[in-house]
## 1
Amino acid sequence: MRDQHLPPASDFYAWDDDLGETPRGSVLRSEPLEGALGVPGAHRAVRLLYATVGHDGRPVAVSGVLYLPAGAAPATGWPVVSYAHGTVGIIPEAAPSLRPMAEVLGHPVCGSTPRFLDAGYAVVCTDYEGLGAAGPHPYLHGPSLAASQIDAVRAARETHPECSATWVAVGQSEGGLATLFTAAEATGVAPELDYRGAVATAPPTEWDTLSAATSDFGRILTPLVLHAASYHDPDVEIEGWLNADGRVLLDAWRTSYLHEPGTVLAVFAELIGKPLLALGRGEASDAEAAARLAATVDFHALEVPRGHYDRPLFLAEGGADEFCVPGTGQRLAEALRDAGNTVEYHFYADTGHLDVPYAAIEDSMAFIARLFGDA
């Protein structure tokens, strides 16, 4: 069964008033961030709480951070990068906006945001539904992720009108999935903005291969994949698919987060090499149980859109990815091209999951510069 309601991480993230007909992207609360909570190159940093829609289509409050470059904004305003982060957890305390980015394990915003700021772009980073604000987070729920990423741009422009209406979406891992959904929806959802295109690095694009991940590090996400499936099918018995060790890891995810020292990673370190899924009759390994999981649970309704994308897309994957099976990104790129979309695909051999955005930084920066060419 789906995880139950969790309270917000702090008073800033709490919003009990009925959002009713509040326009999407409306800023509910903001506060400046100082010192270590910023990132190198940011002239100003502002934490935001804004209105969007959640996984169930109802209004929710979501948080994030806006980083502004130094100097005066150009006459047309600073172009905006809406950045979607990778997996951090599912509880409110996992929100990246709560702590210095340097403490967020594998958070590529640390490396890419200074580059964006140096290029004269404003950067807004959503936390997603259920991270910071009341949770839990509907992990890998594409429509929810996209709503948060799109409406972050609206919130940035409301608090700082010097941010341009011109924007691109960028995301890594879970944020890569967010960015793909955003790319498919952006112009229709926010026609008042000038959406130019998207950069998605290491996105999970095939649920059957993701649910069957068998690499040692990749299996740390096994409980979260089940948690994600429960948002499509509330009857998915998360605990029933896991053995005793898998339930220990699930409990760690339900009470801590990836970048908290000594918690999820410490628990998982004790479980490396051990099965996490409950074995059915005749099954001898996690891989066999994972194959049954992929065949039993309907993940396909949650896969990325493969129809029309009306702006260019940059898609990158690594040849040594521990979470997303190498080649899945290429299959998506080919399918999208066959559907008539403009896709720039990059494959970085010997590159692991967390390193893809770093390997792609020069290629992706050049791509973004072309998108913003006349901004």
## 2
Amino acid sequence: MSDTPPDHLSTNPRSPHFDMDVLQRGIGIRFKGRERKDVEEYCISEGWIRVAAGKTRDRHGNPLTIKLNGEVEAWFEKPAEGAEDKAADAE
């Protein structure tokens, strides 16, 4: 696995942009210079994130989301599996 997070990622399992392996590594998001923990979906190339609109739900029980536009940065919070082993071998 690379150290670059995907351009587009969603936490909704029904989305075509959902990837459990990537989500398990942990993704950090910085939006307009502030670190956000409430991001449901993001796209770096298009410059937007989706966040839940309070506790409001749609008729299927999914949270209603708001799309916010701005500069998006993403990073992995945990190193890739095997990356730690390679770093230890290099020493």
